[in-house]
Amino acid sequence: MDDPDLANDIRYLREVVAKTQPRTANRYWPITVAWGCVVTTGYLACILLARAGRFAALPWVWPALIFLVGIPLHWYLQRRVRMNIEATGVRPRFRKDLLWCWVAITAMGFLWTAGMIYTNAGHWYLISFIWSTLYIVGYVMNGVLLSKEWFWAAGTLLVAVVAGFLAGPDYYWLPGLGIGVTFLLAGVLGRRNQSAAA
Q: For the segment 6-29, what is each residue's pLDDT rounded down to a tens digit?
């Protein structure tokens, strides 16, 4: 190019576009691991309480874990991750598409759960299958919009759903526990991908 100012402008625009492009590695993997720990702990606690016959404590497990542990930990880790991203000179993107995807998935799960409670349905094991299938959809959306490790999480959770169904009533808890395990899997793979991309 004959005009050096134009060449500099083009170089600057290329750098800005490169910095705002979505990355193949999920830099928010610490949040994924944290939610994996919270969800896995919740399902293990529910399984253990149900086997011990302490059904009165079951409704308090999830609200306590989500509101007292999960959400504060999420806010803290999100702030730290965003500060680390900004320190590298990259502007973090707020993904409204992912936000609304997960809001819709959570709302559908709560509606199904509330419907089963309201109708006093006797098939409570269905809640585990309902939430698991909704999470599979969310994982696929994460894989398309965020990073590839979510496809592995979706496949693993699908295997857990099928295995739980085929194994019979004694293993209907398997898909629910699989949600937490797949969050941990996605977090570990996200950390590995970030290390490989660095």
A: 677 677 766 665 555 555 567 889
pTM above 0.85, yes or no: no
H or E segment at 161? helix 149-167
Counting beta carbons within 10 angstroms of the beta carbon of residue 198, is it exposed (0 to 12), middle (13 to 18) or buried (19 or more)?
exposed
pLDDT, tens digit, for every residue of 127-157? 889 999 999 999 999 998 888 899 999 999 9
DSSP string over 70-129: IHHHHHHHHHHHHHHHHHTTPPPPP-HHHHHHHHHHHHHHHHHHHHHHHTT-S-TTHHHH
Burial letters 95-123, b for 16+ CB under 10 A, else e = eeebeebbeebeeebeeebeebeeeeeee
